[in-house]
Amino acid sequence: MSTASTCATRCSWWDHVTPALKDPISAVTQAFLADPCPYKINLGVGAYRDDEGKPVVLQCVREAEAKIEASNFLESTSTALSSKLVEESAKLVYGEDSDVIKEKRFAGIPALSGTGACRLFAEFQKRFYPESRIYLPDPTWSNHRNIWREVHVPDRTFRYYHPDSKSLNFMALMDDVKNAPDGSFFLLHPCAHNPTGVDPTDEQWREISSLFKVKNHFPFFDVAYQGFASGDVEGDAKAIRIFLEDGHSIGCAQSFSKNMGLYGHRVGVLSVLCNDKIQAMAINSQLQQISRTMYGSPPIHGISIVSKILSDPDIKAIWLKEVKVYLVSSFFFRFCTLFDFHYYKDDWTDSLSIISKCYKVMATRIHRMRVILREALERLESPLNWQHITNQVGMFCFSGLNRAEVYLLEKEFHIYMTPDGRISMAGVTTKNVDYLANAIHEVTACDQDAKILHNTDAYKINTDIRFTSLGTSKTRARGMNLAL
Amino acid sequence: MASSMLSLASAPPSASLSSHEIEKGKLNLGNSSLCFKKDKTNPFMKTKSVGRISMAVASNVSRFEAITMAPPDPILGVSEAFKADNHELKLNLGVGAYRTEELQPYVLDVVKKADKLLLEKGENREYLPIEGLAAFNKVTAELLFGADNPVIKQQRVATVQGLSGTGSLRLAAALIERYFPGAKVLISSPTWGNHKNIFNDARVPWSEYRYYDPKTVGLDFEGMIADIKAAPEGSFILLHGCAHNPTGIDPTPEQWETIADVIQEKNHIPFFDIAYQGFASGSLDADASSVRMFVARGMEVIAAQSYSKNLGLYAERIGAINVVCSSSDAAARVKSQLKRIARPMYSNPPVHGARIVASIVGDATLFKEWNAEMEMMAGRIMNVRQKLFDSLSSKDKSGKDWSFVLKQIGMFSFTGLNKAQCDNMTNKWHVYMTKDGRISLAGLSLAKCEYLADAIIDSYHNVS
């Protein structure tokens, strides 16, 4: 009766399964790992590295772990720890003294880092607003689109980044917000926009918030870099506090991957503001139900580390200091831009010495790398404008390199980054920055389509009229729908 | 205009009306052209009373007004009810979490050692690749299929780390939904409560095959075979690799062969949920024999694993989904698609549990120690079964056959009690169990067997 069919004779059930497109970000890491070149550089994924190019485990994390016992495996402790995490995370993002916290007017659930929190919200949105859409900034983190698409919520983009000026396209943004149907769901990056590093000013946030009120839009914040943009966790939450002041009922996806270096532990929180505790309970029950069919609950190890760090005042103080030391200070950036005009003249050495004094005082590694990279490119007499390297905020630099240049960097120089030209500054070290600058200079100077770049006189004309494009319209003025 | 509205928004929210009042229409809302389509009322305007002055205040009323409480999870709900009970003789036989004789949670020694080693090593916390920790994926497939299995050597298994059994099942469900649209999953009647929820949320249709026979408190084998035969060709048949949850009733090796025959005949795909490897017989290898038998026949098989019970790693959410394919090329393609499903769910899986399992299973000494602890845990449950059976047989004079307690295997026992009888167990005896009559023997101590026997006998005979 039993017929043992051999593998050779029967077809596979899975013949019709095609190979999936590689995820653009992790594909970079995979390619990097497979490369035997000894001086290769990984500028792909946004995970912090020290100057040796090594991952860093924060001291606060080690201290928290030392205090955690194996009794975490108890189910009852798990529930208590999860509640603690949600409570402390909400305080962190909404402000300890906010009414929302005092009146417990929020629903919250631990999630599998930022991705998981966004996914839970997307599922929740689909369940209760099945006809709704999500508006995503253009560009945004590539996985955002995947997440909402997976739950069958169609996405639209709103203009955000101005490729020519490498800054915020505020007028267009406001226009798109206005033209969206009332009551639309919008995803916003409150600080350290990924991938551009370009953030609205406080004043611009206020205007955005007002317009949102008028349009009755739902603001959903993806908070992946609180503390990472300016070194100040309170300051980085300013956009959210502005919206709160204006009485918006918002949602937040928080991630502790970057600001606590807990990437692999998958710790995050999804919170949704509500009217009152009763509604909070209802929403919580729905969110729990959604997570229970996806993975049950998030892993306790990460939850216990974060809740320990946030609730133990001594360990929290260590964390806040580490965030400043390792990460970026925006004050330094703004200080830098005051000296930008020097870069168009030949006497950049003066401004550089002033800046170097500054960064000795306020130095943080990523800062320093931004400045050094920019310096190096200018020393090579690159005809292009690299101001944006130091203008942009956070872990990433949206370099403006096009796909062809990115490809060349990989093939010729063994330098890896996502196809949209996004560089993770955390991957730049004092040892590799010169090599990187040289490589970037080589590929941009050799751009086939833009022979004009070899003629620096022609470019000087451009700078005189303050035209800060990185190249010809053909190569540069591409749509910014990159690797979404 | 907006700014004047906003200035009023700074009125204390404590003055706001509850959602209840809003629903009852006590709220007199202003009119505006800014009505949100779904609400009948204008969610943008809300009147507040501050003293005797009513102000129109611009604040966004939550758009989630209509959301109701989700029903409580039947299994976890039991633990919650248990916690709320203050009776001194209360007994929690709800969730399948292993307890010691003292009814304390048990952290395996081998896990403590692995945890300590990890702490000392001070490993980094970098993102795992989407498919998970390579060292873990290797050992988990070897543990299930056997390290020397040709399917492993030929690289015909797509293994992706998942968040315990639930997460792994969900990945497989999403794969089925995407590549076999309309195909059904057949689940046993009864089965673990979350199975249907997982398939529902993954939008995979499912139906049941007969499994539990209340008359014999055993397997309805004929019904099972008939239902599997009747299913449309190319269905996915969800099977419990060992220690069936909730009944504790497993097919015999001969019955497994027949099940495999029928599945091959009908061109179905066997889909194993292995949550208790080691807990059924005490032997990790022996408990994998059903899966290995299917694979040895050259069948393509899906298998979800969990380390929640057998390593006590419930809270760390560590498991895996394995798809055994007929070629390494198919396995590579399937793996890439599983990754594509994982990325918008959580990007990459958590590292800690994976490292623990990899260090235990990958180290000969620790693995041996684990085998011993596994035997001890399974052994305790077998002793408890014996004691319960003995108590029931000696106390119950009606001549009812209680031997199913001994025949059933694993953490659970399906007592055959109906809902009213289960309610009696809880209300009168403070014994907490799920309403389908399932008790978790992992939560029973030898000391409490007599008490439980009394409760069962009373409920069975005196309640209908």
Structural features, described:
The complex is a heterodimer of chains A (about 475) and B (about 475). With about 475 residues, chain A is of the alpha/beta class. Helix content of chain A is about 45%, strand content about 10%. In chain A, the strands form four sheets. Chain A has a seven-stranded mixed sheet with strand order 2-10-9-8-7-3-4. In chain A, strands 1-12 form a two-stranded parallel ribbon. Chain A has a two-stranded antiparallel ribbon with strand order 5-6. In chain A, a hairpin with a 4-residue loop joins strand 5 (about 160) and strand 6 (about 165-170). Chain A is globular. Mean pLDDT of chain A is about 80; it is low at about 1-10, about 330-365 and about 450-484. Chain B is α/β, with parallel strands linked by helices and about 475 residues long. Helix content of chain B is about 45%, strand content about 15%. Chain B is built from 18 helices and 15 strands. Chain B has a seven-stranded mixed sheet, sandwiched between helices. In chain B, strands 1-2 form a two-stranded antiparallel ribbon. The longest helix of chain B is centred in the C-terminal third of the chain and has 32 residues, at about 365-395. Residues about 1-60 of chain B have low confidence and may be disordered. The chains are: A alpha/beta (about 475), B alpha/beta (about 475). At the A-B interface, helix 1, helix 2, helix 3, helix 5 and helix 6 of A face helix 1, helix 4, helix 7, helix 8 and helix 10 of B.
